[in-house]
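Give me the fold.
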Amino acid sequence: MKKRIIYTLLIISGVIVFFPIIYSLIASFMTTKDIMSGKLLPSKIDFINYRELLQNIPILQFFLNSLITSIVAMIFQVIICSLTAYALVFVEFNEKKLVFLLVMGSIFIPWEAIFIPNYFIILKMKLLNTKIGIILPFLANGLGIFLMVQQFKTLNKSLIEAAKIDGCSHGFIYLKIVLPLSKGILSTWGIYSFLNIWNMYLWPLMISTRPDSRTIQIGLKMIKSEEGTNFGVLMAAVVIVIIPSLVVLFLGQSQLQKGMTSGGVKE
């Protein structure tokens, strides 16, 4: 009886959480008239909204721009954050505490405080309307470094010491021992960074002024402005926007769960 109640509550919660997504998918096949009349199902399945979207708005270009910037930023964040965390945990140097304090301090600096300085840096480097300009401020992240430091501290130190005694280099230890044992936190941070960059709006809006350099979130706003009350086309665009997020979450679900619980038990 207890399990039935739990399963029932989980099903109800799942329906509530996924209903907006499911309705967006259904509404993308409906006309504006059907949507405004409150219908939950389309009169007929028609891809006219998607065809109109592809014809009037360069949605595929926006999609590709966001996909490239999100993937590249995710890769660099995982690499740079993990390398920095490895150095802070396994490499001895005099300024270690100072570097860690600087990393911790960067977490508490609000994005709004460095938004304008970052913009002028990109402007001076002549990187406006480029993917590099969008990605550059997000190649590393203080929170990612901190989380990986905490994860690396839980690793079995005897493995690291044994590798050092055998003459293994830091590069070997990092690639062959530390990273394989930290797949959970690496995957978790990769998912987080991908979704964070994918959903950015204000920074790409400031950096990109040409349609060929704009991202999908800006494109979604453009669609809303140009299409006006054509909610069918807007819902079609919403479906395209959320597809990568859902794919990333479903593919990385198991690793995400491991990453959420990693560091809970020390050896």
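The CA atoms of residues 129 and 209 lie 6 Å apart.
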